[in-house]
Design brief:
Blueprint lengths: L8 E3 L4 E4 L2 E4 L11 E3 L29 H8 L19 E4 L9 E7 L2 E9 L14 H12 L6 H14 L5 E3 L2 E2 L2 H10 L6 E13 H6 L4 H18 L4 E7 L2
Helix pairs in contact: 2-6, 3-4
């Protein structure tokens, strides 16, 4: 591993970091992110991202039947909101939910729903927590990979690019899992729906990151610390990059 130092990333509570084979200490402006959406992950193993006991070969056909975060999305995701404070969990799903997991994925899930006069398209990126412990601390590292994935794939927030990318993936895939209003549906029907969406001011795209490692009480109590400052800078940088494409950015943590 040490033959490739650019692969190593570490952040320390002192404010030092190792990135791209270099060590440095960052100076911070007084910036607070403070825009987490805090929600509940009851009966979920926060360290289990996908269903199945083998992380290398997840059992995607069990999405919705276990205690993984993928199952939480399938069973609880609600896209019917514009402002973050309007979000609430639901057990009566509405709209289309497509699982894009796999090599070359654009997001772990893509959700599309008509809400009032808006059509809302959400690219949902899911990352497991490092621990289930209620004492786990704020961590920059657990956010870095998933935020980079979200930024890398933000171009697929446009309906046309998303449709073309998914069309290619579905054509070569044995099985892609998809649901309409909570019930199993053909992925090709989701493509038809995407193709029918008109790009106008009522079509809104957003990038969603679900990372329950971050607990509300721990995060708020860490205000002013170097590690909280590091995370806030990372989140604000991601938000700015995603906003520059016209999409909105929202990150979910756990309400404790």
């Amino acid at each position: 591993m040490f033959e490739y130092p650019e692969l190593i990333k570490c952040w320390y509570e002192s404010g030092h970091a190792i990135v791209n084979g270099m060590i440095f200490k960052t100076g911070y402006r007084d910036v607070d992110y403070s825009d987490f959406i805090w929600t509940y992950f009851d009966s979920v193993d926060l360290t289990k991202e996908k269903p199945g006991s083998d992380k290398r070969r997840p059992q995607l056909n069990q999405i919705g039947n276990e205690d993984s975060l993928f199952c939480w999305v399938k069973n609880n995701w609600n896209g019917n909101w514009i402002q973050p404070n309007e979000f609430e969990l639901t057990d009566r799903q509405e709209g289309w939910l497509y699982c894009g997991d796999g090599a070359g994925e654009k997001a772990d899930f893509i959700h599309a729903v008509k809400h009032k006069e808006h059509t809302l398209i959400s690219l949902i990126h899911v990352k497991a927590a490092k621990s289930n412990s209620s004492k786990r601390k704020v961590s920059v590292g657990v956010h870095d990979i998933v935020l980079n994935q979200a930024i890398k794939n933000v171009k697929y927030c446009t309906r046309k690019d998303l449709h073309e990318a998914l069309d290619e993936r579905i054509a070569i895939s044995h099985k892609k899992y998809c649901w309409k209003d909570g019930k199993a549906a053909e992925a090709s029907k989701f493509l038809d729906y995407l193709n029918s969406i008109k790009n106008n001011k009522y079509t809104k795209s957003r990038v969603i990151v679900i990372q329950p490692h971050t607990q509300k009480s721990i995060y708020e109590n860490a205000k002013g610390s170097n590690i909280r400052n590091q995370l806030d800078v990372l989140l604000i940088s991601a938000e700015n990059a995603i906003h520059s494409t016209g999409a909105n950015f929202h990150i979910f943590g756990i309400h404790d």
